[in-house]
Amino acid sequence: MPAIPLTVLGLFVAACGPTPPSGSPIPSTPSTVASASPQTPTATLIPYDPPDWFQEAVLYEIFVRSFADANGDGIGDLNGITEHLDHIQNLGATAIWLTPIYPSPSVHGYDVTDYFAVRPEYGTRADLQVLVEAAHARGLRLILDFVPSHLSNLHPFFQDALGNPGSAYSDWFLWTNAAHTTYASFAGLSGMPRFNHHNPEVVDYLSEAALSWLDLDDDGDYQDGVDGFRVDNVVFPPREFLEALRQRIKAVNPSALLLGEAWVDRARYLAGYFDEEFDALFDFPLYHIVQGDPEFNGDGVLAGEGFPPLLTSLFGDEAEMFPAQAMLVRFFSNHDTNRIATELSGDPARLRLAAALLATLPGPVMVYYGEEIGMLGEKGGPPAWDNYRREPMDWYASQAGPSQTTWFRPDDRWNLPSDGISVEEEAADPESLLNYYRQVLGLRREHPALSQGDLVPLDLQPLASRTWGIVLSSGSETLVGLFNFADSPQEVSVSAFPLSAQWLRDLLSGQLVPGPSADGTFSLSLPPAAALILAAAD
Fold first, then answer.
1. CATH code, 90
2. In terms of domains, do 385 and 470 share one?
3. For the whole model, what pTM was predicted?
4. Which of 138, 144, 330, 504 could hold 534 in an S-S bridge, CB 3.0 to 4.6 Å?
5. Is 240 part of the annotated catalytic residue set?
6. What share of the chain is helix, strand, coil (3-state, %, to 5)?
């Protein structure tokens, strides 16, 4: 490993014993655990710029168990993903996020029993290396889910410390009684005890685990492994830990991405995480506007409810509160939410509207696997719960064929055979949602204003029309996005339209639209549940 400068991490680990080598997370003679009292490091943090490669990325989230099965056991695996890189690349994605791939007793994998290994059902570290190399050969980046907030109660460290105050790992966790038989846990779930991040050994252990994935072949080169991490549940670990993790990772690979999951619904609650902790954060405040209450469907702006000017207020707040280099990942659903197609009742027009809106938001955006074909999903009851949001990717109309996963097939599942929702059914149909996603993400590649432009809300009148407009500018290119979230046509006008051409072209449909009048006034009737991306046609 290259030399690590003295940082917050250095102060944390100065009192620690030896660190576990890569691939061997359990030291044979663990060192004495340091005090669990909070640390107050005073070292100056080294600033690191966020990685350029993520500035305008299209991130594709894969729930590994559900995506593609290469060995025929019905469970998705790493080799299955490698075999389907064509689909991801043709969609227009530039980066891939894998949900946890580590050994775990659960289906979801967020209760880890070994931070240094790959879950056997998913493959091996060698399989991951093959996937990374294949992705890199296509210009795709790959990041892993990293879970530093908590671990599995079956992890050997926790098992050693449970009910054993004299354990070398006793101060690694947050106990709530002297006998160390009760403890703090994620969401009160006994299977996911929380780490004590004020213990330097915990900081060192988790940091070494992260570094091991940056150097998959253990050759000391931290540039040839995965390209960074989506860090789970960052609202719990103390700031000192998150700063230490960043310093340790960036010291060996400054271009590695640190993307934080801070599920909050106000922009002001996100601002602090950009100080010295993360390159990027998920834009949960935007999610709450466009999708509404996560416990209900059809109550957000995309469904025709809510108040579109809230988008203007949000983007204004983000521009004011966040540093210029801050990156916000815009998304409309993920593995913890009801799928966007269910939120929108499978309405084809609204699903296209959502895709168009996502493609016109500058900075990184994310597509959840299956979103591009309109897969449905909503949280179910016990015992499956979120499995209904993470159903197998539908590759075939019959839900049967090479690489089709089958691990979750209850009678009440959302996605069924021959329902019109599959890659096979949509790939050859020029009017399909899949090909619409390919189109809008292709426009995003072709027009820098969409992916990296300055976004300025457009003053559309009347305000009560459930419409929204934006101006996107990059260099000499200026585009205008217009969105009608209502179920009926809406007449809108702009008194000072930013495009002065006689004719405008909608990049989505190719149709021509008359430009503004001589005084700069522009009026248009927007179709119901539709988007237009306008450019000067002459």
1. 3.20.20.80
2. no
3. 0.92
4. 504
5. no
6. 30, 15, 55
Q: Is 431 an annotated catalytic residue?
A: no
Give residue 512's pLDDT.
97
Please tell me which residue in 232, 283, 347, 371 is annotated as part of the active site.
232
Do 315 and 399 lie in one domain? The reply is yes
Same domain as 517, residue 391? no
Residue 43 has what pLDDT?
A: 59
CATH code of the domain containing 473: 2.60.40.1180
Q: Considering the candidates 111, 227, 243, 261, report the single residue annotated as catalytic.
A: 261
Q: What is the mean pLDDT of each run of 10 residues along the chain (538 residues)?
A: 34 32 31 38 78 98 98 98 98 98 98 98 98 98 98 98 98 98 97 98 98 95 96 97 97 98 94 93 98 94 95 96 95 98 98 98 98 98 97 98 98 97 97 98 97 94 89 97 97 95 97 95 96 94
CA 181 to chain centre: 35
Among the candidates 391, 426, 446, a domain finishes at 446
Which residues constitute the domain of residue 124?
A: 52-148+190-446
Within this chain, do residues 529 and 417 fall inside the same structural domain, yes or no? Answer: no
